């Protein structure tokens, strides 16, 4: 039995469809604009078995007989412990059809990816922070060469999504155009989804820029559309919203406590956890 553990601050259930997000905290990168408090190892240490029980129990309590359709494993950085992640994917695959990995891509080389696909992984979302290598190093502490190679390698093996955060005057349309050109060169079948997300100054670790203006995002989007068929703005939870007003997130803590968090609660708690994790560094 796998006795390894990762720190879990919470898991999240979607109100829109039977989908769960698993947050594995801790990260190898130290992105200046990171707005995840999960950059540090916070939450409760849990084995894969404990985590699977939490997902099964909370999703059946919330969705009833409707089976989970999708799980997104995110962080922090989900790939830090390879044995743990492979085991987690393989156990999730036993009851969930779509198993998605959200990663900065640095550790996801060919052998690791193949192992995850073998275990049941169906989609990878790469967060590509910047095109320029020096800029990437400044922003994350690491070169992007391995990530670009890992994206190229993953093409054709698994469904692929690439995300970039638009950071005014730092990662702006010039950087985003270069990334879109790179993706279009490897994506002959035009199947990669490229998503442009917005920098959020209030939630970021370092206030390196302001929030982008809507017209800047639109301009970046129209540039990307010249290269890519599947380009979109924003996160999937926003795009897929069918209900008029999102009421909140269903947060499940490691001990099974369920909390409905409004957007305001979510921002407030994240700020607190972020402040705690910054002080702890
Ligand atoms: S943005 Fe993602 S990759 Fe960067 S430090 Fe935060 S959790 Fe890690």
Structure description:
The structure is a single chain. Helix 1 runs parallel beside helix 2 and helix 6 runs parallel beside helix 7. The protein has a single domain, classed as Aldolase class I (TIM Barrel), CATH 3.20.20. It starts with 5 loop residues before the first strand and ends with a helix. 38% of the residues lie in helices and 21% in strands. With 281 residues, the chain is of the alpha/beta class. The relative contact order is 0.14. The strands form two sheets. The protein has a ten-stranded mixed β-sheet with strand order 10-9-8-7-6-5-3-2-11-12. A two-stranded antiparallel sheet has the order 1-4. The longest helix has 18 residues. About 4% of the residues have low confidence. The site of iron/sulfur cluster (SF4) has 12 residues, from loops.
Which key phrases capture this entry?
281 residues; 9 helices; globular; binds iron/sulfur cluster
Task: Briefly summarize what is shown.
The protein is of the alpha/beta class and 281 residues long.
Q: Which CATH first-tier class would you pick?
A: Alpha Beta
Widest beta sheet: strand line-up = 10-9-8-7-6-5-3-2-11-12
- Which small compounds were modeled alongside the protein? iron/sulfur cluster
Q: What series of H and E elements makes up the topology? A: EEEEHEHEHEHHEHEHEHEEH
Shape: globular
**How much of the residues is beta strand, in percent?**
15-25%
Annotated CATH architecture:
Alpha-Beta Barrel
Topology (SSEs and partners):
Layout: E1 6-8, E2 11-13, E3 19-24, E4 44-46, H1 48-63, E5 70-75, H2 82-93, E6 98-103, H3 110-119, E7 123-127, H4 133-140, H5 145-154, E8 159-166, H6 173-186, E9 193-198, H7 214-227, E10 230-233, H8 236-239, E11 249-252, E12 258-261, H9 263-280
Helix pairs in contact: 1-2, 2-3, 6-7
Bound molecules: iron/sulfur cluster.
Iron/sulfur cluster (SF4) binds at residues 27, 29-31, 34, 36, 39, 75-77, 104, 127.
